[in-house]
Amino acid sequence: MIIKHEIQSAKKVLTASLALLFIVLILGFAQSAKAASVMTNTDQSVWNDTAGNPIWAQGGWMIKEDDTFLWYGMDYSESGVKNVNLLKSTDMVNWTKQASTVPSGKGIVDFSTINPKLDEQEGTYAPGKTKRYDTGQWIGRPVVAYNSANSQYVMITEWNSFDNNIPVFGRNKLAFFTSSSAEGPFTFQRYIARPSGYSMGDLGSIFTDDDGSTYITFTVDVGSNWNGGFQLSKLTSNYLDIAESTKFFGWTEGNKEATTLIKRGSQYYLFASMTNGFKSTPSYYYTTSSLSGAWTYKWDLLTSPSSSNSFDTQIDQILPIQGTEGLMYVYLGDRWSNSNFNGSTGIGRNGWYPLTFNSSGVPTVNGYKNWEIDAAAGTWTPVVPTEPVMQTLLSDNFEDGNALGWTALNGSWSVVTDATYAYEQSTNIAAEAVTTAGDGYWTNYDIQADISPKSATAGAATGIIGRYVDNNNYYLLRLSTNQVQLLKKVNGTFTTLAYKSYTVNPNSVYNLKLSMRGSTLVGSVNGVNELTVNDTSHTAGKIGLRTYNQVATFDNVLVKGVQVEVIVDNNDSAPAFTTTGAWTSSTFDSGYYNSSYFHDGAAAANADKSAVWKPTITEAGNYKVFMRWPAAANRPTSAPLEITYGGLLDTTKTVNQTLNGNTWVDLGTYTLTASSTNNTVKIIASAPGYTIADAVRFLKQ
Questions:
Q1: DSSP tag of 664
Q2: Which of 427, 498, 488 shows the shortest CA–CA distance to 457?
Q3: How far is 490 from 607, CA to CA, in rounded Å?
Q4: Which parts of the sequence belong to the Golvesin/Xly CBD-like domain (predicted)?
């Protein structure tokens, strides 16, 4: 309208302008809403770039230019070879690898420029001079900043040329590279041995303060004590030299490495990992209001939920992200899981988590496995996992006066009156007493029970058992002398996985709950999660109750399992769904599952035609099997089935496909093995009528 017709009044102009502004704002909000991306953290997966290739950016550093994040990091994928990769992203989740800008075709740093520059600066190599670069030497932890004074990007790395036996060089050096482009190529300029006077240990971070002054952080070797101290040094205006040693202090709470510095308001925060080779460690932090003043060691960097090794990472960087709606901080963690380092048993190489500060300025790393980040807005939200459908596997309050279904292995167990009926273990000797129930196929489930210890003998303990394989192998959540403990028993030997102080009073009632989901175990007392660990020793087993040197009663035992469901549909590809003979896809009759169903194409019987559903069963056990079809009058009234399960064959079942359309029809319960080939349901088109092949459902009991 505005283009085609003359605007006659200022009022119309204002109205149109406001309307346009409104549209722009709406579009802007809509775009922001779409900008959020889900960050997925797991130690069992390697992140891939947008081309589907594994990301290599160890010991990395990140900067932001306009709306793009630039992630620099080491590529150690080839043993003995060092390359620096650059990845780009606008959302912090989807990363595109920058093509190589160096002659070798790998990475963005031209390491071949090191030795000619050294020859130019020092002359031909001779004993007493720094060794010339070769690919077997160590280079790591690149940090990058743009220097506006010379319009260059400056990259600083740690470099160990293995001449630390010469005192003048120390262990590591600072190596400086520059480029006119963020994408490289970066070429070597110089090195500094023993920056600020100390043998250098671990390079940490580069930080620009509010006044424009730029600093680097690194650890130093104090005598023979590797990483025994911290050094903060101010860089010269071109970032290629040390202008001053701003602050040094020796660690007094254990040696640290992987330092990173940020400023929040008027307070500076220094974060660091424990020195422990390439292994994942706890993290720590220090604060100061003046970089050259006194620094205060606070305490371990808090994690939620509690983690003794920073969610299996070491610190790379704490990244502030200022967006249109707020300022957020991201903990960028490294996991040195490559076979060259063996720092972690995990497979993934990165773990990034939102870092928050409380009203007192205390930081916490929030260990969400999945969280949503809107980098443009500078906001994040946790992705709360959908609770799995749970089904009751066992429930016993002993009000029937017996303990049918329980097998006492040792001790003295009986049902007694304790306010109400309860299950009591009545011996008080220094030995374990165990009773078990349930199914050895149970895998992911919760067991909870009310327990009441009746004595307070030193070392006495009462608890509940999960994934009981035999009396030498199971998990145990128990209350001991003023502790709650989570243990595993493997081949007869107990190992404490986690524990914490907890007041335990005789004759009081405590609700214990042990939740098991894959390798994650959570122990709760009175509805509060107290202990969380990861362990893969046991994957399935019964439940149990246990005492040691203690009389105790148990009541209200409840076991709920995660419902395992597998559905195989006619639209699934082989080998999950296969047919013999010609079948026709159709959507003519309603009530089918998914997007279509198959029919055999003829009203007459044809025993040569059949359809087979073959599920992939990952958890052995008892499964209800259901079949679904769209019903109609021209269907068979007794289509024969063949069901194979655990090496057995059931040919007794038929289905009437003229009835019960649009529903799951129960075919019976079968004991299925964990297999992708051994369990099948087959329908045969040997009965008169149009035989339907739609979907089959397998529901674990």
A1: P
A2: 427
A3: 53
A4: 566-699
Nearest Cα to Cα of residue 539 among 564, 568, 519: 519
Distance, CA of 170 to CA of 243 (rounded, Å): 20
Beginning with the edge strand found earlier in the chain, give each strand of the sheet holding 493-501 in spatial order. 407-408, 432-437, 542-548, 461-470, 473-480, 483-490, 493-501
Rounded Cα–Cα distance for residues 433 and 410 (Å): 5
d(CA 629, CA 611): 13
- Write b or e for each residue in 3-37: b if 16 or more Cβ atoms lie within 10 A of its Cβ, otherwise e: eeeeeeeeeeeeeeeeeeeeeeeeeeeeebeebbb
What is the distance between the alpha carbons of residues 165 and 97, in angstroms, rounded to a whole number?
38
Residue-wise pLDDT tens digits, 564-590? 889 999 999 999 999 999 999 999 988
The two tokens of residue 280 are 């994942």
Distance CA 344, CA 351 (A): 12
Rounded to a whole number of angstroms, the CA Rg of the chain reads 33
- Using CA atoms of 293, 294, 300, 303 in order, give the dihedral in degrees to the nearest 10: -40
Closest among 130, 127, 211, 209 to 174, alpha carbons compared: 130
* Contact (CB, 8 A) for 690 and 599: yes
pLDDT band (50, 70, 90) for residue 80 = confident
324 contacts 377 by C-beta, under 8 angstroms? yes
**Using the 8-state DSSP alphabet, how is residue 305 labeled?**
S
**Distance, CA of 521 to CA of 530 (rounded, Å):** 11
DSSP state of 236: P
Burial 240-269 (b: 16+ CB within 10 A, else e): bebeeebbeeebeeebbbbbbbbeeeeebb
Name residue 222's beta-bridge partners: 225
Q: Read off the pTM.
A: 0.59
Tally the residues of the chain: 701
With 0-12 / 13-18 / 19 or more C-beta atoms within 10 angstroms meaning exposed / middle / buried, residue 602 is: middle
Q: Give the closest residue to 226 by CA, choosing from 201, 197, 258.
A: 201
pLDDT of residue 34: 43
**End-to-end CA gap in the chain:** 65
DSSP state of 381: E
Q: How far apart are CA 376 and CA 548, in angstroms?
A: 57
Q: Are 311 and 303 in contact (CB under 8 A)?
A: yes
pLDDT digits (tens, 9 = 90+) for 345-385: 677 889 999 999 999 999 999 998 889 999 999 999 988 76
Measured CA to CA, the distance from residue 671 to residue 645 in angstroms comes to 6
Whole-number Cα distances in Å, 295 to 242, 248, 252, 287, 319: 21, 10, 12, 6, 21
